[in-house]
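Milestone M4 deliverable, item 7.
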Amino acid sequence: MTDQTCELDFRPMTHFKGRHCEWMPSRWGNGWDHTINALRNELIRNKITDAVIETYHSRSDYTVSGRPKSGSQPNNPSVQIWFKIGDDPVCIPCSRFKDWSENLKAIQMSIRSKRLEREYGCSTIEEQYRGHAQLPAGGSGITHAGEGVFASARLILNVSKNTSLKVEDVLDDEGVFDEIFKSASKHTHPDKGGSQELMAAVNNARSSIRSAKGW
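Output delivered:
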């Protein structure tokens, strides 16, 4: 193990990317502390330096440090984790168990199994997480398959010529996103120096973001 660290941030669920199903009884029963430490260690082994965990806890269930309070229970046990593979944001959801920490444990075990598979040379990390990457709609050489939602937002922000906002600002607020998209749309018009290809790329990026964010 190296001296690398991994920052884990928690936040309320915004839009669950997985499929809700009939929940199974707990399988591991390792407890919260063990699960979160195992997850952090596995992410470090995968060279992931930060991740966001979304749960169905209410905001009042979170401590000042940003973690769910001890003993607090969400109104739904489904969990998902976000991190990046290269420039692509990856989301892994789980809604298999009745306890939310068990679903988090299942995600940790899934990440572990992928790492072990790579160690035997069966696949690359990009191939393994391709199905979990949040990809934009196709149809343009500008926004191509393999880029993620961050790349789509970056494209819209760049075309809008807005230099005061960051990509995160565009993705965190639907109202901000709509304003930036309107501005970008004006610049895609051929009379404004744009092109039909650029217009299609921006529209595809918008569709991708709205679908991924549930807007």
